[in-house]
Amino acid sequence: ATGPQWVSAYRFATLATHGISYVIPLRDAHGKFQGAICADIFLDSLSARTWAAQPTPHSQVLVTDETGRALILPRDTASSPDTYHTSPFLRTLGPDFLPLFHTLLPRWQASGRPLGAMHLRHHGTHYTCTIKPLEAKGVQWFLSLAVPDQDYLGASRWAVVLLLSSGLCICLVGIWRARGLADRFSAPLETL
Description:
By secondary structure, the protein is an alpha+beta fold. It contains four helices and eight strands, in the order βββαββαβββαα. It has helices spanning about 45-50, 100-110, 150-155, 155-190; strands at about 5-10, 20-25, 35-40, 60-65, 70, 120, 125-135, 140-150. A hairpin with a 2-residue loop joins strand 6 and strand 7. The chain starts with a strand and ends with a helix.
């Protein structure tokens, strides 16, 4: 590499974890390669930081690479140290692994990679989703965010249904009373 760049995610050989590395080549005054400085970032710590920044309690955030491998995982899918060999990091999305995102990413690509929000229904839950490509020298990642509609609609959906039902009941009572009044006024006129 001629300059600093990210290295694709990988499983560390000497540590029981996965990560990504940022590499800066060191060259002498003549441009001859002398060595490199490397900073390693653990995927589980990136995932934990992502969970702390989630916009709603039940939202799910996922970062994948260009091949569809999971880099930053949604809450409740991260591994513990004793599951090193079966860790979900770097696992490819599929119907049995993060099925919400396995459905979302191809739909996003098929719709021309829109920048705005997309709506998705998955297993009876409605989500508002967005995907943003993250590109840096050496890697291409996709940040996916899925927020259940109930997280931001909350009880307002039921409040709207209750208000509309109340309004309809009031209208029906009003029509019934108006008809009763009309019958009272029209009865004497009909006898004439």
